[in-house]
Amino acid sequence: MEHLFLLLLLVTANGAPILAQRLLERRVPAIPLDGGVKFFDGRPLLGSSKTLRGLLASLAATPAVAWSVGVAPGLGLEVALAAMAGDLLSSFTKRRLGLNPSDRAPGLDQIPESLLPLLAVRERLSLAWSEIALLTLLFTIVEIWLSPLLYHLRIRRRPW
Fold first, then answer.
1. Nearest 5°: CA angle at 133, between 76 and 54?
2. Which residues of 94-128 are buried (b: 16+ CB within 10 A; e: fewer)?
3. Taking the model in full, what pTM does it have?
4. How confident is the model at residue 149 (pLDDT cuts 50, 70, 90)?
5. Can you give the pLDDT at residue 26?
6. Angle in degrees, CA 84, 86, 91, rounded to 5
7. Over the stretch 34-59, which tens digit does the pLDDT of each residue have?
């Protein structure tokens, strides 16, 4: 059962910025986390799709969901922080590869934002490496499956 809660927290941490974009785009400005700064290669550091609004949405929603299912909100916050770090790492890497914000990069779009949180809570939850691998795989499958659905529901702007 603990694994389902972790998967729920991963989906929440990574999905909250997408929902916040859709629900708050007209009320809360999308302030880029990188402030528009360019890296020494001339490309954006992270890109315009990584915003303060999305970060705050993840950091607020994940502990709230954790609390609502009887998991310590601190664990939810830890998952959210590490998930957002993984997402920023993915964006940084995608910019270095010359990919635009929201361009599709299977694996790179899912693995860091699920693997880093699981590594962050590994000792606290006594997770085995096999459990981390399985949860990372499950998150990747769920994310790839959910994206077209969210696009169809007009929550995502692209089907990936």
1. 35
2. bbeeebeebeeeeebbbbbbbbbbbebbeeeeebe
3. 0.91
4. confident
5. 84
6. 95
7. 999 999 999 999 999 999 999 999 99
Average pLDDT along the chain: 93
Terminal Cα distance for the chain, rounded: 28
Residue 144 contacts by C-beta under 8 Å, 6 or more apart in sequence? 106, 110, 160
Alpha-carbon radius of gyration of the chain? 15
Q: Residue 141 and residue 35: Cα distance in Å, rounded? A: 32
Structure tokens at 2: 């603990």
Grouping H, G, I as helix, E, B as strand and the rest as coil, residue 51 is strand
Task: Judge whether 57 and 39 are in contact, CB under 8 Å.
Answer: no
Contacts of 37 (CB under 8 A, 6+ apart): 44, 45
Q: At what angle do helices 52-68 and 2-24 cross, to 10 degrees?
A: 140
C-alpha span between 79 and 148 (Å, rounded): 24
